[in-house]
């Protein structure tokens, strides 16, 4: 399956992989390849993040020079040592932030969290 770029995108995908961030492209490809096997989505590409969109943005990827920060929203509160930051922003909604530094970080647990946000 090919992931489409949403027509509301204001930047090209390569914008996020310029300079030293180019090293994160294989990790990004690994994450999106695993996700596309589970769910259908499009990219909504802004200046600060790459959004994964179904009806709404359900996950945001922030490409850094040595990691990808994955932000997703869940309707329940949970804890994990992998979660770097949590924001409670609405009744029964929490935003979670997880760092991906290497392929082994893209495991079933992360994919399941993102799928929950998708649903």
TrEMBL record:
<feature type="domain" description="DUF5655">
    <location>
        <begin position="16"/>
        <end position="119"/>
    </location>
</feature>
<protein>
    <recommendedName>
        <fullName>DUF5655 domain-containing protein</fullName>
    </recommendedName>
</protein>
<dbReference type="Pfam" id="PF18899">
    <property type="entry name" value="DUF5655"/>
</dbReference>
<dbReference type="InterPro" id="IPR043714">
    <property type="entry name" value="DUF5655"/>
</dbReference>
